[in-house]
């Protein structure tokens, strides 16, 4: 499996662009991965923090990975600090684990499974996150079924 190692200064986008902390990933590095800019990655920072992530367009042909404020604080870092990181392709192309409720629902209902499989990876992730936020199992089933049956919108965008 291809592993890219890098070291750079932690940056932060302008507030009008979200103010996210980020690691800039050059286009040449991204192109080394099988799916290019559509590759889901595991990013390991300072050999201590590993997380699944995707790539965002930087606007100059390059890309960036967002580091949450919590991750930056957990690392004890701030803007301008040096960060060592490793990138490898995530073996899970979806980048998230399906909740048990959703897995069982898809195993039991072929029509819902077909609808789920027809979604883009990003829309599948959005559905997984929407269902995972709910603690009550019955409500998880209701939410997953409603989203797949009715094409209910996630973040004001239809998933079907």
Provide an overview of this structure:
This protein is α+β, with helices and mostly antiparallel strands. The chain has helices spanning 27-30, 69-75, 100-108, 110-118, 121-132, 137-150; strands at 3-9, 11-12, 21-25, 41-45, 49-53, 56-57, 63-67, 82-89, 153-154, 157-158. The strands form 3 sheets. A 4-stranded antiparallel β-sheet has the order 1-8-4-5, with no helix packed on it. α3 (100-108) crosses α4 and α5 runs antiparallel to α6 (137-150). The radius of gyration is 18 Å and the shape is elongated.
Given helix and strand content, the structural type is alpha+beta
Question: The biggest beta sheet, please?
Answer: 4 strands, antiparallel
Q: SSE order, as H and E?
A: EEEHEEEEHEHHHHEE
* Unreliable spans: none
* Tally of DSSP helical segments: 6
Short characterization:
This protein is an alpha+beta fold. Helix content is 34%, strand content 27%.
From the structure above, extract its key features:
single chain; alpha+beta; four-stranded antiparallel sheet; 160 residues; 10 strands
Give the topology, please.
Layout: E1 3-9, E2 11-12, E3 21-25, H1 27-30, E4 41-45, E5 49-53, E6 56-57, E7 63-67, H2 69-75, E8 82-89, H3 100-108, H4 110-118, H5 121-132, H6 137-150, E9 153-154, E10 157-158
Antiparallel strand pairs: 1-8, 2-3, 3-7, 4-5, 4-8, 6-7, 9-10
Helix pairs in contact: 3-4, 5-6
